[in-house]
Amino acid sequence: MATQCILCQKNPPIQNSHVMPKFIIRYLKDQSPMPYLKNSLHNNQKYQDGLKGAYLCSECDNVTVSKWESYFKKNWFDSFIYRQKVALLVDEEIVNFLLSLLLRYSAYFVGQALGRSNSQLLVNLQYRIRELLHNKQFERIGCDFHIYSAFIHPITYSQVFLPGINQLLFNSYNCVILPPEDQLPSIAVIWIPSFLFVFSEISLEEIEMIKPLDIFNSMKINTSQNTSFQNWGLLHLVKSFLNKQTNNMNVSQRTQPKLDFNEMKEAFQNDKALSDRMSDKALHWDRALQDYQSQSILFR
Known about the structure:
Layout lengths: L16 E2 L3 H9 L6 E3 L2 E6 L4 E2 L4 H24 L5 E4 L1 H20 L7 H17 L10 E6 L13 H6 L3 E5 L8 E6 L2 E6 L22 E4 L5 H6 L1 H16 L3 H13 L7 H21 L2
Antiparallel strand pairs: 1-4, 2-3, 5-10, 6-9, 7-8, 8-9
């Protein structure tokens, strides 16, 4: 357990600082027919909140990081999901939020011994993130530290993603930190509903083996991100991991207790507003993807 705040490294951490912001947890619960969260690895358990632990001190959690979270929610999350803005500005507060989210996840992995095989990688990552945040070296974003974004649109025509991908990307969140492999550097992948971010200390556009993917949306301070197209190159780069996560989710749904299915069925029948919820829309898109793949097999 951390004895000092992972961000300021001065004050002792509080016990219940969130890894994932509370506004995302509330959004997921609001967009689901059920008033709780599920974990694909623990399908018998119901969660009322996201991951929490002794990560941030009271000031960093309630003032510094809270300000970044509110800014991201207003200017990116709400602007893309509810207002469908085509251009979103990358500024210091957006970068601060994304780096702080990655910092919290890396600390969580270390604390849970989930990154034992690459613990030094996680320690180095935390040092680098704090260096960027403390020294406000925003000019290094897009130069020697890279953040790529994908603004998720419905995936209904694809042969490379498993049906369920829409439920995963529109109705869940997660993070993975992948160690170097072949010519690929270590990258971190974080997704929240409707957004996917990839972090790398090496420019992905310059790696020969993945140049054909045409990866877009590398962030630079005071530039805009185009939200109107699907960043297929970035999604294809991490498709193996996304498909693995989708498969875990699909298996979890199939093995849920029968009582949960009956409860969910009743909720669907009684909820007149359900058609406006993202969980229902994502299920519809995944059925369309499954139908497309079935038809493609028939007409080969």
